């Protein structure tokens, strides 16, 4: 009887210790991480717009496509827009070897713009008209819209558009917002450059008409091989190891 009475408290202590260990183990499990609150604010709702914009869903967006300031050594003067089509980035060149980098969606193969242009026109909540080439390629999709679409939440150009001109003529290529946030980082458009709606509003407010736009199709810009100041040695501008 004496042995049995001693064993019972001992057994109870062992059980409690095991449960405590399980509780500690559970508490130490890492919680799933969502988007950084900084970016949640950056891509939050914009209720003051003519057509109020809801928050942009960035929960599945690769963080490298979110707006950020990065090192960008270049001979191009501050204020120049450089579009790096292969890597799906748009850079706004700044002073001191820096740039604002935005993620973009670009044209499908064979529909991309290349070369230099300038912003010949800026528009707030623009009207959209598909080009004759778009109607000819996909008549069932674009034929009913040949007369154009009024501004609004479903308009493919989104809240802002920057119109690219060459030699005083409209190239029919634009930098604009999008109703398809998932397309940023993809090559799916009919040739235009798509941006998250908060990003195109930000860029629109920073650049005047006449801004030079350089579109790179084949070679990445020099910054692709230049690491940021706090990146480990042997890293790219995104902090990833360089491959040789």
Structure notes:
It contains 5 helices and 11 strands; from the N terminus they run H-H-E-E-E-E-E-E-H-H-E-E-E-E-H-E. The longest helix is centred in the first third of the chain and has 26 residues. It is 21% helix and 23% strand. The chain starts with a helix and ends in a 28-residue tail after the last strand. The strands form 2 sheets. The protein has a 9-stranded mixed sheet with strand order 1-4-3-2-11-6-7-8-10, covered by helices on one side. Strands 5-9 form a two-stranded parallel ribbon. It is α/β, with parallel strands linked by helices and 244 residues long. The radius of gyration is 26 Å and the shape is globular. The protein has a domain of 155 residues: L,D-transpeptidase catalytic domain-like (Beta Barrel).
Report the count of strand segments.
Answer: 11
User: Major sheet, described briefly?
Assistant: 9 strands, mixed
- Please state the CA-atom Rg, rounded to the nearest Å: 26 Å
First-to-last CA distance: 76 Å
User: Strand-residue fraction?
Assistant: 15-25%
Given as residue ranges, the uncertain stretches (5+ residues, pLDDT < 50) are: 22-27, 221-244
Shape: globular
What's the number of helices?
A: 5
> How is the CATH topology of the domain at 65-219 named?
L,D-transpeptidase catalytic domain-like
CATH architecture label of the domain at 65-219: Beta Barrel
Q: What is the helix/strand order?
A: HHEEEEEEHHEEEEHE
Widest sheet, order of strands: 1-4-3-2-11-6-7-8-10
- Overall CATH class of the domain at 65-219: Mainly Beta
- The CATH superfamily of the domain at 65-219 bears the name L,D-transpeptidase catalytic domain-like
- The pLDDT mean sits at 80
Q: Which range best describes the helical content: under 10%, 10-25%, 25-40%, 40-55%, 55-70% or over 70%? A: 10-25%
Structural category: alpha/beta
């Amino acid at each position: 009887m004496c042995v049995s009475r001693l064993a019972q408290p001992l057994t109870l202590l062992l059980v409690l210790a095991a449960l405590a260990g399980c509780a500690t183990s559970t508490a130490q499990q890492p919680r799933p991480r969502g988007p950084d609150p900084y970016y949640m604010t950056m891509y939050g709702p914009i209720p003051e717009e003519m057509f109020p914009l809801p928050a942009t869903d960035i929960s599945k967006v690769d963080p490298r496509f979110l707006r950020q300031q990065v090192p960008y050594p270049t001979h191009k003067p501050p204020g120049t827009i450089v579009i790096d089509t292969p890597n799906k980035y748009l850079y706004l060149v700044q002073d001191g070897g820096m740039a604002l980098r935005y993620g973009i969606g670009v044209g499908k193969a064979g529909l991309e713009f290349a070369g230099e242009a300038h912003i010949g026109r800026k528009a707030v909540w623009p009207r959209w008209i598909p080009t004759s080439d778009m109607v000819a390629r996909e008549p069932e999709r674009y034929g009913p819209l040949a007369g154009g679409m009024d501004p609004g939440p479903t308009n493919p150009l989104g809240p802002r558009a920057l119109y690219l001109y060459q030699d005083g003529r409209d190239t029919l290529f634009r930098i604009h917002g999008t109703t398809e946030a998932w397309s940023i980082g993809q090559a799916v458009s009919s040739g235009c450059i798509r941006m998250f709606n908060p990003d195109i509003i930000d860029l629109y407010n920073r650049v005047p008409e006449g801004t030079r736009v350089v579109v790179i199709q084949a070679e990445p810009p020099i910054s692709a091989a230049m690491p940021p100041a706090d990146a480990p040695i042997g890293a790219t501008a995104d902090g990833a190891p360089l491959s040789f």
